[in-house]
Amino acid sequence: MLKRQSVLVSWVCAVFLLASCGANAGRPSTQPEPEDGYVLKDDVTNINEHLNYDDSELHKIYFAGGCFWGVEAYFARLYGVQDTVSGYANGTGEHPTYEEVIKGDEKFAETVEVTYDPDRISLETLIDHLFQVIDPTTKDKQGNDVGVHYRSGIYYTNEADAEVVKEAVKDEQQFYKKAIATEAAPLDNFYEAEEFHQDYLVKNPNGYCHINLHVLDDIKIQPIIRDEEVVKRLSEPKEDEETN
């Protein structure tokens, strides 16, 4: 079954892909643009595929922000994110199917499990990125997606992360007159979505996406020491290197 309810709707989404992905729902980053860093070459879309995470102490956080296709694709490309998995979180049933989730009866949220290395990217930075690509004031809605399963949320698994998440949501309120609707809650459950949904926009580059993935094209990476050689090799030459 297609994610959208008809082939016609999917076709329209593909036609208007640039328009639907052309504007950010959230606000600009609160973190200053790095003065120095590496910008990946055009043919390198995911730096994490070239890095070694074997010795990393990985952490997990769970983000809901509308259709999980775009959320997964966005966070997969952030330096320091080792893996992303689309799934269904914080509902009342067990092992739901997509068809059951979209009915809304069990209150699952389309959610992405983000596995990351805190030495490469912080939880605060990840949350900041979430708020850059969603509208946290809309209830059960993101972009063209409407329904309880499209609500926004940040779900954590330990108290240390709880403090960071709740503080970040509290701080986010200053940017909006309307109340923040994004949930900040413990992860009650998470079920991996069907294979069809995993890495959907990698398999279907023209698929529907409510997030502007192109904002990542020129993002600057400041790698840790052991990644610098790899990142430099896969990045555009810096201006000072071009003149030498």
From TrEMBL:
<dbReference type="GO" id="GO:0008113">
    <property type="term" value="F:peptide-methionine (S)-S-oxide reductase activity"/>
</dbReference>
<keyword id="KW-0732">Signal</keyword>
<keyword id="KW-0560">Oxidoreductase</keyword>
<dbReference type="InterPro" id="IPR002569">
    <property type="entry name" value="Met_Sox_Rdtase_MsrA_dom"/>
</dbReference>
<dbReference type="Pfam" id="PF01625">
    <property type="entry name" value="PMSR"/>
</dbReference>
<dbReference type="InterPro" id="IPR050162">
    <property type="entry name" value="MsrA_MetSO_reductase"/>
</dbReference>
<feature type="domain" description="Peptide methionine sulphoxide reductase MsrA">
    <location>
        <begin position="60"/>
        <end position="210"/>
    </location>
</feature>
<dbReference type="InterPro" id="IPR036509">
    <property type="entry name" value="Met_Sox_Rdtase_MsrA_sf"/>
</dbReference>
<feature type="signal peptide">
    <location>
        <begin position="1"/>
        <end position="25"/>
    </location>
</feature>
<comment type="similarity">
    <text>Belongs to the MsrA Met sulfoxide reductase family.</text>
</comment>
<comment type="function">
    <text>Has an important function as a repair enzyme for proteins that have been inactivated by oxidation. Catalyzes the reversible oxidation-reduction of methionine sulfoxide in proteins to methionine.</text>
</comment>
<protein>
    <recommendedName>
        <fullName>Peptide methionine sulfoxide reductase MsrA</fullName>
        <ecNumber>1.8.4.11</ecNumber>
    </recommendedName>
</protein>
<feature type="active site">
    <location>
        <position position="67"/>
    </location>
</feature>
